[in-house]
Design brief:
Layout (H helix, E strand, L loop, with lengths): L3 E3 L2 E3 L2 H10 L15 E6 L2 E2 L5 H8 L2 H4 L2 E6 L1 E2 L1 H9 L5 E4 L1 H11 L3 E8 L4 E6 L14 E4 L5 H12 L8 E4 L6 H6 L5 E5 H9 L4 E5 L9 E6 H6 L1 H20 L4 H7 L10 H15 L12 H13 L21
Parallel strand pairs: 3-5, 3-7, 10-11, 10-12
Antiparallel strand pairs: 1-2, 2-5, 4-6, 7-14, 8-14, 9-12, 9-13
């Protein structure tokens, strides 16, 4: 099976999608593909192409997008803040990013963007350090060099929140961009950084390799949803049907992944995207299950739901950390789509 690759993006055409339907068993969705021409949609990930974004890949190769009348181009992003910029500029209809990034964009520069669904109700990020020299709390970061995925992105924002909770000035920590991969642990072992912030998939990969690490989740420091789907206010007004179709396809893919308890069909469905993580299928399955816990953190019946209470509390935590201005948290989200699923 092949996928068309275009400058960090992936698209599955009609023939490839039909082939995928036959290959993925229970993950195949449509009995009858829509007769009308599918509508083209561009979606941007927070950072590159990872198993963590499995619902989008499975929705593509499993035929769920086709069932909902969409032809989706999946673009690997360069950071969560950049993903917000892509939808604001109209280069993408929908993107995935951190709840923190949405609040910052809305409260500080009045960006015309809103979260339309929650993919990870709790944070996916962990602070990873060497077991021989562990960084066990925000207070222990003082005077150290901490790796972040991207400058100005979600991991740096979480770092600022943690430092604020520990009453540490931001300049007490040196920041270094290291990306989001197990390779960042090499920098820890070489002594170039003391710790780094990464998503759950990286932690799973490192533990599968028996890396001598210490890790803790940042979720205790922030109530804001970990990862959300976002769209511009213009797209919400003008392309409601496409956004809703996208989310319905993703929800169908999430349910298919949940039903695939062995994980084999889900892994096959992601093969067209040539993800590096798939070279170790058992580890990829472990990453998938770790991500699924985030989708279902508020219960299976609340997958993709926008929960206003989380936004209200999270916004105030960000104000206290100097990452957001006082304002109405409802400016950062809309419940119209998740309630229509």
């Amino acid at each position: 099976m092949t996928a068309t690759t275009r400058t960090g993006s992936h698209a599955i055409g009609r023939r490839a999608a039909l082939f995928a339907l036959a290959a993925t068993g229970s993950l195949a969705a449509p009995r009858i593909l829509r007769a009308q021409a599918p509508r083209d949609v561009t979606y941007v990930t927070p950072f590159g192409h990872l198993v963590a974004y499995a619902p989008d890949y499975v929705a593509a190769s499993g035929g769920h997008f086709a069932r909902n009348g969409l032809n989706v181009r999946i673009v690997g992003g360069t950071g969560s803040a950049a993903a917000v910029q892509q939808v604001v500029s109209g280069q993408a209809l929908i993107a995935r990013t951190g709840g923190i990034d949405v609040v910052r964009a809305v409260s500080t520069v009045n960006a015309p963007v809103r979260a339309v669904a929650t993919i990870a109700h709790t944070s996916t990020f962990h602070v990873v350090s060497a077991a021989s020299a562990p960084v066990r709390s925000a207070a222990e970061m003082a005077g150290k060099t901490i790796g972040i995925v991207s400058a100005g992105g979600g991991t740096e924002n979480y770092l600022d929140i943690m430092l604020a909770r520990a009453n540490l000035a931001k300049d007490r920590v040196t920041r270094q961009v290291v990306g989001n991969s197990p390779g960042a642990f090499d920098l820890v072992q070489l002594g170039r950084i003391n710790a780094f912030i990464c998503d759950a998939g990286v932690v799973v990969n490192l533990r599968a390799r028996h890396a001598p690490l210490h890790a803790f989740n940042v979720n205790a420091f922030a109530s804001i949803p970990g990862q959300v789907y976002v769209a511009s206010e213009r797209a919400i007004a003008e392309n409601r049907d496409q956004i809703l179709a996208y989310l319905r396809a993703v929800l169908a893919a999430m349910r298919a992944i949940d039903a695939d308890r062995g994980g084999d069909a889900s892994i096959r469905a992601m093969q067209p995207f040539e993800l590096q993580e798939l070279r170790a299928p058992d580890t990829a399955k472990a990453v998938l299950r770790a991500e699924e816990e985030l989708w279902q953190a508020e219960g299976k019946e609340r997958m993709l739901r926008i929960l206003p209470d989380k936004w209200r509390q999270g916004w105030q935590e960000m104000v206290a950390a100097g990452l957001a201005r006082e304002g109405d948290p409802a400016r950062a989200y809309t419940t119209a789509f998740s309630e229509a699923l």
